[in-house]
Amino acid sequence: MSRRIRVALAGNPNSGKTTLFNAITGARQRVGNYPGVTVERREGKVRVGEVEVDLVDLPGTYSLTAYSIEERVAREEILRDDVDVVIDVVDASNPDRNLYLTTQLLEIGKPLALAWNMSDLARAAGVEMDLEKLSAALGAPVVETVGHRGEGADRLLRTAVEVATAGGATPARVHYGAELDAALDALAGRSDLAAAAAKLRRPARWLALKLLEDDEDVAARVGDAAMREAARALAAPIAARAGDRIEALTADARYGFISGVCRAALRQTAQLRHTTSDRIDAVLTHWLFGIPIFLLLMFGVFRFTFALGEPLMGVLERGFEWLGATVGGWWPAGSDSLLRSLLVDGVLGGVGGVITFVPNILLLFFAISLLEDSGYMARAAFVTDHLMRKFGLQGRSFIPMLLGFGCTVPAILATRTLEQGRSRLATILVMPLMSCGARLTIYMLLIPAFFPRRLQAPVMWSIYVIGIAAAFTLARLLRWTLLRGETHPLIIELPPYRWPTLRSALLRMLTQAGLYLRKAGTIILAISIVLWALTTFPRKAVFERDYDGEAARAQSAYEAAAARIFETTEEEVASAIGRHAELTARIAALRAQFAERIAEEESPEGSPERWTLLAARDAGLARLREEEPARFDRALRYLDEALAPRDEALRAIEAARRMERMNYSFAGRIGRRMEPAIRPLGFDWRIGTALIGAFAAKEVFVAQMGIVFSIGEDSVAALRERLRAEYTPLTAFSLLLFCLLSAPCMATVAVTRQEAGGWRWAAFQFVGLTAVAYLVSLTVYQIGSRWL
Amino acid sequence: MTGSPQTSRAARRLSDVRAGEIVRVAGVDSGHALRMRLLAIGLSPGATVRMMQRHRIGPCILAVRGARLALGRGMLSRIRVEPVS
Ligand SMILES: Nc1nc2c(ncn2[C@@H]2O[C@H](COP(=O)(O)OP(=O)(O)OP(=O)(O)O)[C@@H](O)[C@H]2O)c(=O)[nH]1
Ligand SMILES: [Mg+2]
User: Fold this and answer.
1) Which of A158, A167, A217, A406 is most buried, with most CB under 10 Å away?
2) Which CATH fold topology does B11-83 show?
3) How far is the CA of B65 from the centre of ligand 2 (A)?
């Protein structure tokens, strides 16, 4: 007979719940060495023999009295009636504190199994443990596990199933001292309380305890004033005699119970857990060096991303160039096939352009995940707390904000670790200003197109810094106006530092790559095709100019010029060109090679470096002339006076034809409508349509630029060249700012609505950020075009 | 706020504790939610606390029950402490 059971993974933050969840179910949920990685419930299924297990991974929680949103998620799940067993994941290297939740789980009487996780660390610290004794003292089975190596995971699961099917041991009873125990017995013995407890399906003693502790939540659910009064009458003298509140006394008793258990079952032979960590902290959280070190680390993350990303990008770029040429080659040259246009311009030009930049995004995630695994994130919250408070935010806001450099959606979810309130809301609202990985594609396309190499890095930095500055400024303004109020004080646990493992960072990157390819293959592809269709239809059949005729005239002018240069007849010109073809190609290659080097070096005109290069080029040309004295001059003249003008003319004709077509298309008509609004920012209608597409996903901007400017060859380099021909660096900078600040993407709007609690805030964020973007770009462009 | 007379009179606060000093928690003056949180992370009466880092401004780092906690100043001033005997 098959059975289905529900098992919940509970435990303190950072005790390894998700690691065990992944080990048991084979899932790849995020783990990291700081409290608050998991903020949502996640379910997985496994089979144990005949039993089907629904395993639920939960956010960490310190107790069953929820404090923040993610703790509430955990508590609700743990207390659900259909949860058959709770696996309490305990960090064995810190049992004193971790067992506090365990005592609460014992009190509430849920069938319980313990995962004695991180036992490798406990052993390394020299703790000798007797799990038999531990299990007996707690009244629950205890299984030793090492989460990241999967050790004990199987046995843990089987133990949980056993508890569910065969029933567990009797949970140990925590004693709270003679007086409180007597009061508990008196309360629990009341018949009305027993009835209320049965209705809540909780043990009577637990209900009595909660009433004595004056737990608002539970009291409200019982709703019986008489019982509450009785509890108060019993509690008051005890509290007065002890000089403290009942909940402090019970907490003290729980910790007492824990130290009893630990004394019986564990022997601490050394205290090593934190010594190295404390030494590292003396430097990393130093009052003076803390912030500079933090900035340096962030700088390192981005340097790493770009340094490693560039060569990978080159590889992908060449791959797509090749693919575009191959696919394009299936049709005869100059073909007007719609399918060709869809594949080459729409799909390869659009999605291909985006995928080219993916290595950078993945590396960024890789670097962030190294930070997450090291334990530094919690320190970043500590180090920045004081500064963040000046802006109405808090140190804990910083962890989500760092994640925001990867993707805004999980970053907004991560704000669940903050206390519900105005400071959290402000964090959510400004989150899109932490420039995400998707927007990186836009910068990677535009910055190298418009800025000389030596300015590229500074421009990129300035974009990120402007985003952060805008986030802080807006947060401050919000907290002074709409979201005025207290900021919750900092409380965060600092886990011991750990070496991040390459394996987990790589795994994380692979998972991210999978997600990314899916995004590219679904939403980005779909929107690209829509945008392609919008820029292609309706097709113009009759053009205002006779482009074919103009092209033919350019061709015959070219032939006439060539005949003149080679001093032959028009009939023989083809063979004359053929005879000179190889030499022509060599001259052209030599020039192109030096042009490229000059562009790369960026030595200013008239500088010695430039002069050296030019001299080298002329020497090369002179050598060619010596080799081919009879033909060289003619080949050179042919190149400059016949071939180059023709190619130039054909390009201009083709561009004009595309322009006329696009103006006629739907996108052209829509774009033209919006052009008056964006013209003052320096944008034309093509940028306008790309910006609209970017609402679906930021990468679509790059795709649409690829579609609009595709000229049959789909390399990012060619696209950049076209962009450079069309726009000024000032327009590009204004555009970069607009993309950084403007309306967040669809997914962000949805998650903001969910987390901020309503469309109102999502709409506010959307409109507000777009207005800010508009104003900033307008100012920059208008001032720039007047004074530059 | 149910401190007994002698503790609230000369109550020293965790925010007054110097770096490196070890003290014992005597009580917590705060609302219910915050007190429950402090109790759950180990800051219950009787717990020994070592001040690990205390800068002129900003939060402090404490060692409590085998864990390291970063707590804001505002929070520290609500925790009454006494010398370890
Ligand atoms: N040495 C050691 N490290 C472990 C073990 N189990 C988990 N970890 C590491 O501990 C850290 C925290 O693990 P998570 O699984 O994210 O912890 P969690 O309980 O899900 O944390 P939250 O989601 O924040 O509540 C990660 O860096 C893991 O790699 C273990 O048994 N031994
Ligand atoms: Mg987790």
Assistant:
1) A406
2) SH3 type barrels. (2.30.30)
3) 22
